[in-house]
Each structure stands twice: as C-alpha cells, then as structure tokens.
Amino acid sequence: MAQYPGITLTNAGINMIAESQASKTALIFTNLKMGDGNLGDGEDIKKLLALKNPLLTLAPNLFKNKSNGLVTLRFAVSNENLETGFFAREIGVYAKIGDDGTEQLYAYTNAGNLTDYMPDKNTPIDEQIIDIDIITGNASEVKIYLDGKIMYITKPDFDEHINDKLAHKAAFGEHNNDGSAHKDIRQLINDTIKNIDLSPYAKLLSPEFSGIPTAPTAPKNVDNTQIATTAFVKSLITDIPVPAADGIIAQSLDTWGWIKFANRFTIQWGQSSHPASGDATTFTYPLSMTTVLSASLQRYSTSALAEHNPVLLSLGTSSLTWINKGINGNNAATTSLIIVIGVV
Question: In a 3-state reduction of DSSP, which class is residue 218?
C-alpha cells in the first residue's frame, strides 16, 4: 500500500487562496493528477509548477467543506483508460481562480519508493477512493470543476448520505406532517390551471385557426393523414405531366379570319378583289405561317363573266398572288374567296 506523506500547498496554491479572498472569486478545484516522477534531493515542493511526469488525470467526485479553512476532496481512481502501467509515486491537486482562471498546481505529495504499481487497462482494478484533506484558508468560495462529465456516486458517498438522512428522519417527518408546510400538489396544479387564459390557443377537436398557420411539409411520397401544406401540394402539381392539347386555343372570326389549334395547325380565310385591268393581286394572310399546306381560290362575283376564273400565281408563307384569268383576254373586276391551310 502506497504511503503518501501529508499533502503540501505550493506557492501557487497559497497565492490562489489570497487571490480568492481579495477578489471575492471562487477557488475551483479542477482535477487530480498522478505520475511516476521523483523529487530531487532537497527539492522544494512549494516551488513546483507541475508534476514531474503526469500519467493519469482524475476528475473530482465530490468535496465536503469541513469549515475552519479545510475541505475534503474525493477522487475515484480507475485504470480503465490507462494505456501504460506505472508506479503511482506522485499526486498533484490542480485548481484555478474563477471559471476563466488558469489551472495551476495547488498542492503536491510524493511517496518516493513507498508506492504501488498501477497496471494498465488490460488488468482492471477495483475502483479505489482517494480522500484528500486540503487547506483552503480564507478563500471566498470553494467549488469543484466537473467539466460536464457524468459523476458516479460511490458506496461510501451513498452510505454517508443515508446516515445523514436517518439522523434527520424525525425532522423530515415533522415537516411532511405539518399541514402548513406545503400545499397539496394537486391543489397547486388546479389553482394554476384555472387561472390560465386559454382563448389564444386552438382546441384539439375541430380547431379554428386564424392568421397564417404553418405545418411541416411532408416529402412527396408520403401517404398518410397528416396535414398537406401548400408547398406539398405545389410539389405534386409540378410533377404532373401536362397532356398534349389538341383543341382550339385562339381564333378570329372576322371576314379576314383564322382558327389556330394547340398543335399550331391553322386555317385562314379572306376575300381578295381583282381589278378590271387584269393586274395580279396579292392577298396577305391574317397570320404568317411557317409552312403552307394548301390554298384554294373561288370566284365570287355575279357581275363577272362566267368564263373568268381566279388563278394562283405564287404561294408564300405570309401571302399569295393570284390573277383573274379570262378566256380570249376578257379580264374583268372580280372577287375571290380564299382559304389557306398550314402551320404557324
């Protein structure tokens, strides 16, 4: 069994006590470190700034203020994370002033050759408890630093807690039996609920919302009874293929008119007058086309000679040219009804 002499405050530890008292800032014990370092002949512990060779760091498990400037720090020793075994020769307690302070060696002890060997994690040991009584003097406040770790209560801690409870059992009983000590918790809940104004909240059954209520947007493949948001509906509509349209999408039913279908097939018509001089006449379509599929001309004039007939001279995508062709050169004024079929 290792035999450690009494732990000694370092100069840094003494200064931290004074600083805590002067600045009214808490003295916080952060951890305990163990190592295998040796002290040199006549080396002054008070001047040490760190362990000689720290190999294991332990978080504090609890501390008890014993008053009169003395506290007990408890550490649980385990080798579950120790990669290499060592002789646990030196122990150092580290502390700092305030949450933002710098950690320093507060106190130190060294067992020299009267030490035990700490095996590595491949040889598990039963968890051991180290209690260290350490001087804090007139420090303003004393704390331990848990660093967010989960701390496990040891059996000695539990036994001590139970003993304290048993010692005060009578006091607890008197309190619980005292009708004026605390209200029935159910009554407190009822008193709280009945004073809550529920008007701003929606009912669970058939709620009536106002403003712009929102809800989570489900993925497209969800098929259940959850609420469908407008974003969800829009995402589904976007994915619906648009069927090929085949109906009329535009038209103009004038004397010079047209009908346009969804596939761009178009029928156009109009009347074109031919002069008595016999010159060629151009008819411009109401809509220009990319492709002309067919065109027809029909004479429309009761005053024209029977042998006079319109003849197509040229056919373009925006107009056609025609002439009134008569027998024996008998050209006269006439009118043609024109139909053009194509693609715009």
Answer: coil
Tokens of 341: 């079929």
Distance CA 303, CA 300 (A): 9
- Range list of β-strands (E), the chain: 8-9, 27-35, 54-58, 60-65, 70-77, 86-87, 90-97, 104-110, 117-118, 128-135, 142-144, 248-252, 258-261, 265-274, 281-284, 291-299, 309-315, 319-325, 334-343
What are the pLDDT digits (tens) for 70-79?
A: 888 988 898 9
Any idea what the Cα angle at residue 24 is, between residues 18 and 29, rounded to 5°?
70
327: DSSP letter: G
Q: With beta carbons less than 8 A apart as the criterion, state whether 106 and 10 touch.
A: yes
What is the secondary structure of 144-200 as a DSSP string?
Answer: E--TTPPPPPPHHHHHHHHHHHHHTHHHHHHHHH-TTTS--HHHHHHHHHHT---TT
Pinpoint the alpha helices (H) of 40-85: none
Residues, the chain: 344
Supply angle C-alpha 84, 90, 92, rounded to 5: 110
Rounded CA-CA distance 233/218 in Å is 10
Tell me the pLDDT tens digit for each residue of 105-146.
Answer: 999 999 998 999 999 999 998 878 888 888 888 877 887 766
- DSSP letter for 137, please: T
d(CA 86, CA 116): 9
Dmax of the chain from CA atoms? Answer: 146
Exposure string (b/e) for 17-31, b if CB count within 10 Å is 16 or more? bebbbeeebbbbbbb
